[in-house]
Amino acid sequence: MASISWRGVYPALTTQFFDDEHLDLKSTARHLQHLIDEGIHGVIVLGTVGENTTLEYAEKLDVLRMAVDVAQRRIPVLSGVAECSTRLAMRFAADAERIGLDGLMLLPGMVYKSDPRETISHFRSVARASALPIMCYNNPVSYGVDITPAMFTELADEPALVAIKESSDNPRRITDLVNELGDRYVLFSGVDDLVMECAMLGAVGWVSGLVNAFPRENRVLWELLEAGNYPAALELYRWYTPLLHLDTKPKLVQYIKLCMAEVGLGSEMVRAPKLKLEGAEREEILGVIRRALATRPALS
Predict the structure, then answer these.
(1) Where does residue 177 fall: left (phi above 0), alpha (psi -120 to 50 degrees), or beta otherwise?
(2) For the chain, first and last CA: distance in Å?
(3) 3-class state of residue 193 by DSSP
(4) Cα atoms in the 13 Å half-sphere on the side-chain side of 168
(5) Which helix (H) or strand (E) holds 161?
(6) Secondary structure, 3-state, 94-114
(7) Which uninterrupted H or E stretch holds 206?
(8) Do residues 163 and 190 lie in contact, with contact meaning Cβ atoms separated by under 8 Å?
(9) CB atoms within 10 A of CB 248
């Protein structure tokens, strides 16, 4: 397993499909290799953007094997854990460890909205199902379960829970977590169009969706933020923000994949119940993408 530095840009990798919705592992592997060549610091497969919940269990394991094979320990490989039951999430965590993954990104149980006691029990159980370190994914906007700073304080005695991907759409949470827990957890920004704000408040990593289509811009923006060069970062951020907004919409997967198709980095094919964009909506998103491309900054 690769050592996890828990810093930098970690793409939430898209999963590529053929036109008949079958899994296209070769294209997914090719895309991952391109992102590695562009300087990503780690990768998360089978997250929300990776359409985790539309894949069959065996397909998920195929994606894990592919990612480990492509990465060759050059970067850490994490996988989203997004199962409906705690039991299945525990099984997946153990299988991911056997395959050779470096870590996990753990979501609350899907479909059934858990209360705080149930959520904490789920995270404890999965944390103990393997020896892998875990990034806790807090996204109450999408999944209806909020893991509050008080809950993370209760979970602080679980050594496997190392990092937090904070996607509550509330940058105040970064400061609240630091004030409540100091450096107990490594903090990642999980909302693309809040990354500058979160980095300034203490996030040391970025789980990004738009990096799938714009890896160079992501890398340069993050390097500027890490260096504290906020004037230069702000200039790039303002250009990038209309694209980053696409990561916050219900159809973020379709929007990001359309971006990838426009820049020649992948297919816009998704798996049902998601459908490819069409009509006025597709033209609106293409307009956002093409306006950005027409003013794309020259970066080294």
Answers:
(1) alpha
(2) 31
(3) helix
(4) 19
(5) strand 161-166
(6) HHHHHHCCCEEEECCCCCCCC
(7) strand 205-208
(8) no
(9) 17
pLDDT in tens, the chain (300 residues): 557 889 999 999 999 999 999 999 999 999 999 999 999 999 999 999 999 999 999 999 999 999 999 999 999 999 999 999 999 999 999 999 999 999 999 999 999 999 999 999 999 999 999 999 999 999 999 999 999 999 999 999 999 999 999 999 999 999 999 999 999 999 999 999 999 999 999 999 999 999 999 999 999 999 999 999 999 999 999 999 999 999 999 999 999 999 999 999 999 999 999 999 999 999 999 999 999 999 999 987
Supply 12's token pair: 């939430």
Alpha-helical (H) ranges within the chain are 25-37, 57-71, 86-99, 116-127, 140-143, 149-154, 172-181, 195-201, 215-226, 230-244, 252-262, 279-294
Paired tokens of 152:
């993370």
Backbone φ and ψ for 192, nearest 5 degrees, come out as -55, -45
Instruction: Show Cβ contacts of residue 72 under 8 Å, excluding neighbours closer than 6 positions.
Output: none
C-alpha 273 chain-centroid distance: 21
* Spatial contact of 35 and 72, defined as CB atoms under 8 Å apart: no
Contacts of 30 (CB under 8 A, 6+ apart): none
Domains of the chain: 8-294 (3.20.20.70)
Helix (H) or strand (E) run with residue 131 in it: none
Peptide bond connecting 273 to the previous residue in cis, omega within 30 degrees of 0: yes
Q: Tell me the three state secondary structure of residue 63.
A: helix
Phi, psi angle pair for 106, to nearest 5°: -100, 125
Token pair, residue 51, equals: 């359409």
